[in-house]
Amino acid sequence: MNYPKSFTDLVECLKRLPGIGGKSAERLAYHVLSMDKEYVQEFANVLSHFQDNIHYCKKCGHICEGELCEICKDETRDQSVICVVESPKDVFAMEKVREYHGLYHVLHGTISMIDGKTIDDLNINSLFERLDGVKEVIIATNPTREGETTALFLAKLLAKKGIETSRIANGLPIGSNIDYADELTLLKSLEGRKKI
Prior knowledge:
This protein has 8 helices and 6 strands. It has helices at residues 5-15, 22-34, 37-53, 70-73, 88-97, 125-129, 145-160, 183-191, and strands at residues 55-56, 63-64, 78-85, 102-106, 136-139, 164-167. α1 packs across α2 (22-34).
């Protein structure tokens, strides 16, 4: 016996979301079926207006509802430091630490030969347009092959401009054991060591 077409259509839409397979999509569809009609309508309205209301900041590439994001509009932040990250979710992660008070720049990805993503596909030109008065650029891409490649490429470009460039430290997470770490993680831990 087959599901009704409307049910199947919803399952197919849900399966397009990252991390949602067929079984998860079916569970979600059954959940939607059991929800109040008012809540389903509210949910549908929020989804339909989401792309109209959320877009990228014209200055840094972070998500916002206006022309500029809240961080770019905040004049109390240190305008001389820019932290370069891969995606808007990285900005939120960095902000949870509550120790960084500079600006951000979101690349929207990394250089990836496998995915066919080159430097031209990233939000880099606008970074170089905003370097007046900037003393340091912190590169906070992920410690993956693609993240490291992107960091090295950016560091070379920034060195030509005479901008001090730093990289966030990588290494062992707190609570882990050295004997479980791979060689690259241990190497990065040694390279990122500091005096105590």
